Write the structure tokens for this entry.
Amino acid sequence: MSPSVIPPRTRASERYQRPNVFVYGVGAAYPPHSIKPEELDVLARRFYPSTPALEKVLTINAYTGIDTRASIGTIDHPVVNDPLPPSITELNDLFMTHGVSLSVSAARKALAQSNTPYSDITHVVSTTCTNSANPGFDHYVIKKLGLRQNVQKVLLHGIGCSGGMAALRTAAGLIMGESFRGRKARVLVLAAEISTTLVRSELESIVKNDEVRIGICLFSDCASALVVGNEMEGDEDFPESAENAQELPNGLHNGFDQDDDSLQERIQESRRQNGENEPILELLGWEHEIIEDTEKDLGFDVDPLGWKVVLTPRVPKLTAGILPPLFSKLVTSIPELKATIAEAAHSIPPTSFSWALHPGGATILSGVERVMGLNPEEHLRESYEIYVSRGNSSSATWASVVARMMNVNTQEGDEKKRYVLGCGFGPGISVEMAVLKRLDLDGEGVTGRVKARKTNEANGDGLMNGLQALDISDRGSSTSRSSDAGGDSTGGSGTGSGNGSGSLSPNLSTVALPLAEDVD
């Protein structure tokens, strides 16, 4: 086939109106145990005397809006019941057991949904803030999954709660580079956090230094994964002799060939032959920004006993304040939004989107609601559901929210908003924002109805059988059972009482939440 030719003087903004970055699968894995607010009180009083700081933290703990936080163990686990807090060596061992196992489970779920052959994974982009081993945890996940030895891997650090979205942004850049070279890319994006093991270290600082540290009231354990890639007609490599990207293989579709029906048909045929399912989301654009002089407001500092959460009362106001200008900058840069939402409403209002907001805390959620004019049930349902039933799992939480949005709160025939606004905040303070388009809806308007999910039969019996098999095959030894992919069979009931937080929607605070195996 003859290559597509791009005019040599075409501006980059015209040549790449769409990134050609798609999400094919998403999965999250939670451990089977959970910690209720009152259980933290029990553990704290088991080892520490009452102090003003401790009493304030435990009072805050009762009003976070979280019912249960996912955890690799209970408050009776030996590691949090020794005379002294666990050492960094013990924390590393726990992460390498449970964090790796959870990551493998989440990855298998995302790969099962996408029907992507493991041998097709070209890159792995990972992140964590609760481990710093070398080689990183991604090395062992790749090994356990049996991915190719030459898979290109990147491990991101120093980005905390925004890590899941930062990893997606990094993957998107890699994918666009491969598209430019005319190569197919399939990137496994991983985020894993084991936070609950830091509880004794945090309690030590609260009591001995009289510090009000609320991280132990919020954080939980989880791993999540995305399969992301480009839409190419075939696997041919970009010709080595091509210069200045003047000629691109026919498989690369950009601003010129995005709507080429014949090309789309050839891409679908190529996917069918490969056995891969259709993508579920398209990434349309993203932004990243740092709020000036906020390094001391949000962080995760190195400590002899692991890490210590830095979280000041300024964070909700700071994060809410930057959203309106960043939102405007992002959505007005995406041509498709101008052609759909703006035509209908003469603007691009925040309420046009479903929001996949990282649930950093109740005040962060309510602050975003207020400044962006959102309704928690209509726009932030999944963020609240994950927050109430699982807590804040740092970098792993964002993709868990997306998994819930796409795989649990989606039934055939439901009317859904076509565009998803992803947002997360991390140390720095850094802000990640992205717009994704749902591809599982009919029509072309701002909303659409969920189509019947089609699975490609070339790779077996489809998604559900793959996930059912996964729930069996991932059952391991007693040391790794808490990291079960289908786990949470012993987890919290997730009744969603909201434990008194006035910032949660009344309807959301009474909804019955499924166990974690249903989250993804």
User: Anything to note?
Assistant: The first strand starts at residue 4 and ends at 5. Residues 194 and 359 are 17 Å apart (CA to CA).
